[in-house]
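Entry 12.
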Amino acid sequence: QVHLVESGVGLVQAGGSLRLSCTVSGGLLSSYAMGWFRQAPGKEREFVTAISWGGSSTNYADSVKGRFTVSRDIAKNTVFLQMNSLKSEDTAVYYCAAAGRNSYSTLPKSTAVVVSWGQGTQVTVSS
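Predicted 3D structure (tokens):
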């Protein structure tokens, strides 16, 4: 079963940048559509971004468009989330997620297609 491990420093000032990593084990990154979600205290988990299994397509929530960038390194079996111009409202626990190859378009709408979740990384943006 595919296993996801996240890493990244979690505390930054507003306007700053942060990069999260998600390394896949037990499977090939190219076999999955990958996504990032986040959950703020008292709120439901929400979609942030997704990248297709081939890496050619990406999708972003309106709230992060233009500030966040998803990318991947096949050789390292790792997906990255580069977060720039961070705001206090970006404070949340961030989760990476793996879904089937054909689930890329579904990820923004439903987490039912997720086959594995990362452990979650706390990101705190201080104002």
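Annotation: The radius of gyration is 13 Å. The chain has a mean pLDDT of 96.
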